[in-house]
Each structure stands twice: as C-alpha cells, then as structure tokens.
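Illustration 12: DUF389 domain-containing protein.
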Amino acid sequence: MIPGRLIRDNDMTPKANKEVFKAQGLARDEDAKLKANKPLPLFDQAHEEDYRHVFIELRQSALTTSPYVTLMILSTLLATFGLMANSTSVVIGAMILAPLMAPIVSLAMGLARSESSLTLSSSKTLLIGPVLALLSAMVASWAVGIHHVTHEIAGRLNPTLLDLRVALVPPLAVTGIGLGWVDWQVIYGSFLLFINNLFEIAAAAAITFWVMGYTSFARAKKGFGVSAVIVGLITIPLAFSFWQMGQQSRLINHIQGVELMMESVPVRLERVSVKWGSEPLVQLNVVSGQFLSDAGYDDLAEQLNALTGVSAQYRFSPELKR
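Figure caption equivalent — predicted structure in token form:
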C-alpha cells in the first residue's frame, strides 16, 4: 500500500479530522499476490473469511427445517385469505413472513460456484416449499368457499415482460386457489408469474455473488448458462402476454368513446373491455336514446370489425341516454 497524506502526516492532522481506514477486507497471502497487479475492482471483493461465513449460512438456509415448513404454510394461508379478502396489507404481511428467499439465495450460490450439493439441497427445499404452499392454498379455497376473482387475485393472472415484481408467495397462493377452483387460467397465469419471479431473484443473486468475488466467471458460466436457458424459456410466454396486452389496448383505444349513427339513432360506445383468446371477446356499453334492433347490433359489430381490423365477438350492453 502507498500511504496517503492523512496517514503520512498523522501527527500534524487534528484529531477531530482523522479518518478511520479499515483493512480487514484486504486480500491476503497468495490472493494478495494475484490481485496486486490488477486494477482495483468497482466493488469490495470477498476474501477467505467471507467465504467461510457465507457458505455456512447458505448451507443451513438450503435445508428443509421445521421452521421453514411452518412459515411456508402460515405465510401461504395468510396470503390466501388476504387475496380472497382483497386486502393489500394482509398480502404484504404474507410476503414478509414467507421464507422462500433463503433457499433461492442458496440456489444462486450453488449455480454461481457449480456446487452440486448446495444446488441439489436448495432445489429440494424449493420444491417442498411451493408444494406445501399449493396444498395449503387449495385447502383454504375449499374451506372458505369463495369463488370470486378479486382485484388482488386478478393482478397476478396476466404476467408480461413488464412484470418485475419479486413477490413469491402471493402468486403461489393464487395458483393454489386456482387448483381449488379447477380454473386453468388462474393456475397458468399465477404460476408463470411465480416462476418468473423466482428465477429473476436467483439470477440477480448469482450475478451479485460473481460481482462480489465469491466466484469466477469461468466457474460460474455453467450455472449462468442454465439460468439463461430457463429465463429464455420463461420469456416466450411473457412476450406473448405482452403482445396480447398491446393488442387489447389498441382495440380498446379504437372503440372507446366512438360515436356512430345506427338506424338513424346516434350511439356512443363506453366501458370497453377485452378478453383475448383465439377470437377476442369485446364487452362494451352502447349508450343511445333508444334501443337498437338485433339487426342493428349485428351491423354495429360489422362496422367495429372494419374499424379495428380485428375479427372479434361483441357483447353489447344497451344503456339509455339520460
């Protein structure tokens, strides 16, 4: 080390202006020799004592313990009741209580350092936890007997590329609710969001371990490759959902507020919503001074198809103008 001015002029520096220099994190022995001729890293690098402490903690976190099982069940039940009651605060409480983050970080270290024992142990714990969560949420949905998609549930059914949330238990609880309802749309959307969030966290943690010096890129590239393949596969349905969202928005913008003359009666189209499928289903209110005939609504559907350029089914809700 080349001492700076504050160290060289130690005796001439007023005591109140002295700075503290901590050297515990400096590289030692052979590690110091290897790093001596390299440029300083942007972030503090881990050393031997850090390895030892972190690995002990992560190996313990990768185990399936009774506190882990208990917290997994309790947090899922709390999330399930919060979702059904449409209570954001209860759902947030379940997220705080959930223990899934610890085995995910252990999995990230296992992938980053190609540690097969740590990877397998954390993967086993990650498999047991979600299975318990799904069973708990499914039983709770049967016990409560509510079959209504609340706003909190609906917010976890259509993940897209814009969804960067890291919540784990709430979408998993929604999947369990979907199993209880035997509703494929609820199961698919929420479980996709859970898998997306899980691997986002694992990938971010693995990259962080690499940046902090817990592994080299040569050692981590295999784990990074596996993560990249999984994230790439998840991206496909997310990209499709994102495209669907764009199409729905475009369709709504083309129809919302449109005014037309049908059967010599001025009508205005309001409260437009779209459910995307093999053929989009468009629901909207038709506000007019008098109700149209069945033929009039058929003509309206044809005009809207021509206007939007999309072949869709329309469900009209007549509404008299006040």
